[in-house]
Write a structure and sequence with these properties.
Elements lengths: L1 H4 L2 H24 L1 H18 L8 H4 L11 H25 L3 H11 L1 H12 L7 H24 L2 H25 L1 H4 E2 L4 E2 L6 H21 L4 H18 L2 H22 L2 H30 L12 H12 L34 E3 L2 E3 L7 H32 L8 H15 L13 H28 L9 H5 L1
Antiparallel strand pairs: 1-2, 3-4
Pfam families: Wzy_C
InterPro entries: O-antigen_ligase-rel_domated (IPR007016), WaaL-like (IPR051533)
Subcellular location: Membrane
């Protein structure tokens, strides 16, 4: 196939046909509002579906992380950029309409969650103190691109609409993962854990996704009587996939998400201060429980408390990183993606041996961690305590916004609009207690940005809805149907 495409005549023919289809799609989106919305929803669906980092078909080659892959060839890079450009071109009529108010919307999010954008800025600025500035710049630019796309989704989509897209994308992941785990075990089974990973790169992220899928479909089963049998079925199927992934942390995550779902009606009756208090207590308890169970599951289940409480080796790793690595660059860190660089050999900042690897004790042997196994510690390694402080302020601001949605009592506010920001916020926290995916180009950062932007603009949507009834021509932001469609 590759040799065939290198033939100038064949290549010209393919480009010509592709251009014709591209123009036809552009024209279709231009004149049909319904089809424009369909293509935009399809793009968002594909974007969120493939952001966890899928390992099958074409997905590894079109994932944004492939743009800074050190082994990326020039033709592959050009093809990926061309694919992105084609998607933007097709959607440009829709984007032009939806972005008329971008200055006003951006100003609102900058004021309400300025620390989010400050954090993205410091990632870009970390190029200046990274030992590999070119690589840090590429990764930061890709991360910024993902942030902008996620911010657009947070601006344009209601939480109700987003919930529907998320549920079906997660259901598709579960179904395809089951197929690969059962029919193509060389791809679908994680050889280290002998558990399901499906179409995903590892079992733990897959388990976290299934915990979220189970919670969202469970809430749909309780709140929507239509096709309840389908919601219950997909809930049970997601739980089966979660159990097959054999991740203790993900099971604790599901319990936490379920607790919030069950307590949603109670929390909605509280005022903001009491709801904030309850959520903070829940987070403290949940974080502690998640770490203890994840770190000591075998000791708890098999031998009570008689085994070593650093069973998995994460605790010594965290202690070592704080005392030996973070202490060397405490304020600004090593630069975005500037710490774990095994390809540099002995120059790898993470290394503690001449072979360029970080060796840590675990039980009777040693292991080489590929990351900090904690998303928040990863931030400190990359941009220091200064960057972590900026992120923490953004984190608190976003939590406040999620709680405000949780206690929203307007009659036009649906239950999923209230609960989804908090569900996604918890999804951001719990997996990152034991794995490092917070500042990776994955769905976790997408969800975080969507929550931050969506909760910032939520009060504006409500005000606009009131002003539109008085003056139909008023539109400093898209009307509510533009946000929620």
């Amino acid at each position: 196939m590759k040799q065939l495409l290198l033939n100038p005549v064949i290549l010209l023919l393919v480009l010509s046909v592709g251009s014709i289809y591209l123009l036809l799609l552009f024209n279709t989106v231009s004149w049909s509002k319904k089809l424009a919305n369909f293509f935009e929803d399809a793009f968002v669906f594909i974007f969120l579906f493939q952001m966890p980092g899928l390992s099958v078909a074409i997905f590894p080659k079109i994932h944004p992380a492939a743009l800074y892959n050190r082994d990326k060839t020039i033709p592959s890079l050009v093809a990926q950029i061309a694919l992105y450009a084609a998607a933007v071109f097709i959607l440009s009529p829709q984007l032009q309409k939806n972005l008329k108010d971008i200055v006003y919307a951006a100003s609102v999010t900058l004021v309400k969650n300025s620390f989010l954008w400050s954090f993205v800025l410091i990632l870009l600025l970390s190029t200046s103190w990274s030992e590999t500035p070119d690589y840090t710049l590429r990764t930061a630019l890709v991360f910024g691109l993902i942030t902008l796309v996620s911010a657009y989704i947070g601006k344009q989509y209601s939480f109700e609409k987003l919930d529907k897209i998320l549920r079906w994308s997660l259901a598709l992941n579960a179904i395809l993962s089951a197929y690969y785990a059962l029919a193509v075990p060389s791809i679908g089974i994680n050889t280290t854990k002998n558990s399901w990973q499906g179409i995903n790169s590892h079992a733990n992220p897959f388990a976290a996704l299934m915990a979220l899928s189970s919670a969202l479909w469970l809430f749909e089963a309780f709140s929507n009587p239509k096709r309840r049998w389908l919601s219950v079925g997909l809930t049970l199927f997601s739980l089966y996939a979660l159990n097959s992934a054999e991740s203790a942390g993900a099971k604790v995550n599901f319990l936490g998400l379920t607790c919030i779902l069950l307590a949603a009606r109670f929390l909605n009756r509280l005022n903001f201060r009491w709801a904030m208090f309850v959520i903070v207590i829940f987070l403290v308890f949940g974080i502690g429980l998640s770490i203890v169970v994840t770190e000591n599951l075998e000791a708890i289940v098999v031998d009570g408390l008689g085994k070593d409480l650093t069973l998995t080796g994460r605790t010594p790793l965290w202690e070592y990183l704080i005392k030996e690595k973070i202490a060397l660059r405490p304020w600004l860190g090593y630069g975005f993606h500037g710490f774990w660089q095994p390809w540099r050999g002995s120059d790898n900042p993470a290394a503690n041996a001449l072979d360029g690897k970080l060796w840590m004790p675990s039980g009777d042997g040693f292991w080489t961690p590929p990351h900090a196994h904690n998303g928040f510690m990863e931030i400190i390694l990359e941009v220091g305590w200064v960057g972590f402080a900026i992120f923490a302020l953004s984190f608190i601001t976003t939590l406040v916004g999620a709680v405000r949605c949780l206690v929203q009592k307007d009659s036009g506010y649906k239950a999923i609009d209230s609960i989804l920001p908090m569900i996604l916020f918890l999804y951001v926290i719990f997996p990152n207690l034991t794995i490092s995916r917070l500042t990776e180009p994955t769905e976790i950062w997408c969800f975080y940005v969507i929550i931050a932007v969506g909760t910032s603009l939520d009060p504006i949507r409500k005000q606009l809805n009131q002003k539109e009834r008085m003056d139909p021509t008023y539109s400093p932001l898209p009307r509510r149907r533009s946000f929620q469609r």
